[in-house]
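Reagents: none. Just compute today. Aconitate hydratase A.
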Amino acid sequence: MAFDIDMIKAVYSQIGEKIDAARKVVNKPLTLSEKILYSHLHADQNLESFERAKSYVNFAPDRVAMQDATAQMALLQFMQAGKKQAAVPSTVHCDHLILAKEGAKEDLKSSLTASGEVFNFLESVSNKYGIGFWKPGAGIIHQVVLENYAFPGGMMIGTDSHTVNAGGLGMVAIGVGGADAVDVMAGMPWELKMPKMIGVKLTGKLNGWTAPKDVILKVAGILTVKGGTGAIVEYFGEGAKSMSCTGKGTICNMGAEIGATTSTFGYDESMERYLKATGRADVAEAANAVKEHLTGDDEVYANPEKYFDEVIEIDLSTLEPHINGPFTPDRATPVSKMREEAEKNGWPTKVEWGLIGSCTNSSYEDLTRAVSIAKQAIDKKITAKSDFGINPGSEQIRFTVDRDGILQVFEDLGARIFTNACGPCIGQWDRAGADKKEKNTIIHSFNRNFSKRADGNPNTHAFVTSPELVAALAISGDLGFNPLTDTLTNADGEQVKLDPPSGFELPEKGFDVEDNGYQAPAEDGSNVEVKVAPDSKRLQLLTPFEPWDGKNITGMKLLIKAKGKCTTDHISMAGPWLRYRGHLDNIADNTLTGAVNYFNDATDSVKNQLTGEYGAVPATQRAYKDAGIPTIVVGDHNYGEGSSREHAAMQPRHLGVKVILVKSFARIHETNLKKQGMLGLTFANEADYDKIQEDDTFDFLDLDQFAPDKPLTLSVKHADGSEDTIKVNHTYNDQQIAWYKAGSALNLIKEKEKAN
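Predicted 3D structure written out:
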């Protein structure tokens, strides 16, 4: 039987009535996304026709999921909320803190030693507050959620941007920061601006070398990394129904790479098959009883231009395999054009590593399609020219593919089987030679390929593609190899061609596992003690942020003017820094160290206006904080793109930064700034970005009149005595201004809990 089946049945028992009521108020047919949103309004939210991209709406998600790197800060905050138990079903998944190096057995053992303090903390907090705990090695959060918790028509949030993976099972699943998770676990309303709707109509059927991954790689090329910001992407059409559930999950997963709030598909037979195969026939039966409510209305899909803000149409029958990158997941290149692009841009064409797995592509179907290519190489006497690494998505997947002989084929080809964990995808990869910073190329089936992300080497050109194409290109050792047309030379000197991949949507013998790694919490956790050592380097109890004094902030110095792309990886790097995700002061020492300084094109080198000398960003900011001087960070477009990590907001806040002023924000990061009591502002005139100089001082002229829909004014004083007055915009509503005044959203929760 499924986890939380009573909760799921309760959702379904009311879904029809709620959708009917919403349809009458909206007075038009509804998309699937709208059905889920309107049926999950919080009890204190009045039903009305909400305006897309403008109305802030309070929702009541069904569940919360957290991964170990972000769960630390989320649960440290929850411990301050004064609650005895999580108000909704919640889980913690230990998947980010496992370093890939030697192989699964050795790496898991090493990680249990290195991060045992953190795992023990997460286990004890979960036990105390009624939270399900998935042990290290159990699997990657999003694959485990898809296998165990996701359900059609449900709504969940998760402290990871790729929470959206659950859209493959028809959910509205949204990545958030830890403070948002605290709201939901504390039983509070969860606020979201009503998203725009992007419809993607899929026609035809995938064939040959083309995989579900190619759909989202194509969409990323169309919409770019910010084209989905503030929108839900809803896939529909006969092409959507023809794909597997896990294939749909892959597409939804990488919706995070276009900035989308989430992505989803309507309930269909592939989802029913997947639910039954993963031991949830009871969920499938319940979903079948209300299936007309678990997809968009017929009129919506018949005339999508009338109901979506933007419509994209893709013919799967003619879609070509794609390879995206390097350094950004939206640079899309058809496989037939890759050699030409690589030569034109000077990308290394020798493939050093092929990596298969991550939360994006680690399903049974993914691994069987990739292994069909590996088996051909062995049978046709082709020696792999690149190193191989495999990360199974969960222990259930690993156990099943091992039983079916799939892992053995990969190992026969020389592959290294890593732990069921994120590993290289999140920078947890001790790659031999990476410290030399040599220019090289790797190819992987992950979702992100930002500079330094996989191995810490800024010169590693990482390319994203499907698992089957990863296998083919790694075997060939050539980025420009096109398996649709090209041949390889085998051990006998013969020219041989790889046949198109084949695989299994689901295991013929069913899934199997001996220990899935799940640990249920205590029924009564009141006597569970959570300990954090005062001298711990890994964990630190939180001190509440100070409230705003209601006055204009003046005398702010410029900390950094970031040039170009500034993702959450640039603001708070992952990789080795993951070890400090539960210790705010220690991890603050990586703040903005990856951001490029506009004035010298260097990273981690900014001018200290107190001394005139250049130094590391965190050290410079600490000097300003010690001197009692407020600071401001200036950035470019889509600032905070990427991961949901709220550390990218909490670290500057902790160090004394008062304002982040940019051309535009990524959705999750803007919300995280608001939750932590920071001012996230945008230039009213983007050209004013160019006016900001290295020695500037900033004064607010009207922050003391902070109010919704009212721009603010900054006086920018330059070193030569000249001055510019610029207008800046914000999107704060009354509730968010209350967070700012209180010092953080968490401070307000604590105040309300004390009042009760």
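The chain has 26 helices and 30 strands.
Action item: order primers for follow-up constructs.
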